[in-house]
Amino acid sequence: MKNLSDLKLLGLLEDIELHFAFLFRRGFQIVSVIFVDQNYEDWQVTMATENCIIKIYSNIGIIGLALNIPQLYEAVGLLELGDLIYGVSGNGDLSATGPEPPMNEPPDLPRTGQLLEKHIDDILEKIGRMLLLLSFDDLPVPSSKFAAMFPYN
Q1: In this structure, are residues 140 and 70 in contact, taking their beta carbons and an 8 Å threshold?
Q2: What is the pTM of this model?
Q3: Bridge partners, residue 45, by sequence
Q4: Best mean pLDDT range from 66-70, 126-130, 134-138, 149-153
Q5: What is the tens place of the pLDDT at every residue in 67-107?
Q6: Which residues contact 9 (CB under 8 A, 6 or more apart)?
Q7: pLDDT tens digits for range 17-34
Q8: What's the whole-number mean pLDDT along residues 47-54?
Q9: Pairing relation of β-strands 79-80 and 53-59?
């Protein structure tokens, strides 16, 4: 019989594969899975390609997502999906893919996946333009070893 941590891990990976299948089709790979509490309720899953880093996480039951490109990761870290969507659309409407959830229901994996799928190309284009505007003396070079980029995730 599998223990609780194994069951939580398998369930989480199945949910990620279901609601973020479009990322796997784009070549993303899961590079890190961390449970941050002893009850396995808070977690973070990091996915990456050579061109993008995405962290999907649960903190106190609230689902979040942050991303960035490797060239800016060490300089500015990850940027929250809501902020990026606001920056792309300019209207801050995070419910663009469906009706606004009731106030007592935080965003869930399906809704987060839908939002990312709808906006990912515009977000990455905008981040790419930001990179061109920034002038770094020593721009970090993306590592081919994803795990080395996330020692503490």
Answers
A1: yes
A2: 0.76
A3: 33, 56
A4: 66-70
A5: 999 988 888 899 999 999 988 876 544 444 444 444 344 56
A6: 33, 35, 40
A7: 999 999 999 999 999 999
A8: 95
A9: unpaired
Q: What is the token pair recorded at 132?
A: 């061109």
End-to-end CA distance of the chain: 30
Residue with token string 């609230």: 62
Instruction: Map tokens 């795990």 to a residue.
Output: 147
Written in H, E and C, the secondary structure of the chain is CCCHHHHHHHHHHHHHHHHCHHHHHCCCEEEEEEECCCCCCCEEEEEECCCCEEEEEEECCEEEEEEECHHHHHHHCCEEHHHHHHHHHCCCCCCCCCCCCCCCCCCCHHHHHHHHHHHHHHHHHHHHHHHHHCCCCCCCCCCCCHHHHCCCC
Encoded amino acid at 89, one letter: S
CB-based contact 70:51 (threshold 8 Å): yes
